[in-house]
Amino acid sequence: MSTAPRFLRVLLVLASLALLPPGASGQEAPPRPRRVVVLGIDGADAEVFTRLRAEGKLPHFDALAKRGAFTPLATTNPAQSPVAWAAFATGSNPGKSGIYDFLRRDPDRPGKIEVSLASPTSVPFGPEDWLRNLLPFLLGAAGGLLVSGVALFLLRLLGMEERNRRRAALAAGFAAAALLGVLSHRVVGWIPATVPKAISNRRGTSLWVALGEAGVPTLAVEAPVSFPADRAANLRLLSGLGTPDVQATWGLWTFFTDDPRENARAETGGTVEFLAFDGEGTARTRVYGPRNFTLGDGEREEIRKQARFAKGVFDLKVGVPSAKRFEQMVAHHAGKADQASCLLEIRRDPAGKRATVRVGAGGPRP
């Protein structure tokens, strides 16, 4: 029997297989696992949200709600952000989560009020006390022996008499040991015995930790009341509400406004930045970073003087509402001048409806 027809049939089968799409087989590929996305908006009111959706002002959220689910969510008592988010994360009431306000009292220090989200503590760092005391002696002795041996060898090469050679090497060794011991004592003294550490006051297991430990890959972005960051298998997390910022605060907010009736300092700890727009529709302010600890008192005061003068000239040029408000603005800018990390420039259109923001390098300028 000829093998040609059989050979042709094999070629046809191989050709047809080559035309199949990648991954095609006799069995259907298993469906890809579906993902669940939970969007939580701090302070959002379900009734207002529903009204804005009905008015067509939230088209993207409306599309998400139609594809997924949208339902009112009861809040906690008190209805405060950290309290509600802790209950959301752990599925427990404030009495069990341990977060029942923004603030809490410290029972060990009467009259002391602290932020309830996390508490500062410290952990041991560096060598123990007995080693701290012994280490300078050991380093000094080792250095003295080394210097003495090197001196003895060099003086022998120079042909010095043995008796004088030993005395000179011994003196050099003692001097080196004393000097190295003193320096080592100073260096060891610079090593802190403890380092600060934050501990979360939230009790209970969070939703994202439970999911991760159950084998569900979980990503939590801006996770509230989760600092220090929760850790678990299959979990990637970025802490949100309650995370300290670069200014060593609990993430204080900044409100930019051109309304002269706003106060320069808010009661809740945030900052109100007054924007004085010039004739071209441009206002300048600053973005603040951490304090520059390398500056001396004189340098810091000079920066503040320059900032006070520059801010005063700029605001007088564009106009400010009142002398009191002017003094508040200048004092605020000058007081934090050494923390100004970059310039923030805001430009608005003639109608005042849109604004563009540009961040650029800058020092203590207004």
Kindly describe this structure.
- The chain is an alpha/beta fold.
- Helices cover 40% and strands 17% of the residues.
- The protein is built from 10 helices and 11 strands.
- A hairpin with a 6-residue loop joins strand 10 and strand 11 (355-361).
Radius of gyration: 34 Å
Q: Give the SSE order as H and E letters.
A: HHHHHEEEHHEHEEEEEHHEE
Q: How do the strands line up in the largest sheet? A: 9-10-11
Number of spatially distinct domains? 4
- Work out the helix count: 10
- Contiguous runs where pLDDT drops below 50 for at least 5 residues: 1-20, 361-366
Net shape: elongated
Q: Report the biggest beta sheet as strand number plus sense, adding barrel if it closes.
A: 3 strands, antiparallel
Whole-Å distance between the termini?
A: 96 Å
Oligomeric status of the shown chains? single chain
Summary keywords:
alpha/beta; disordered N terminus; disordered C terminus; three-stranded antiparallel β-sheet; 366 residues; elongated
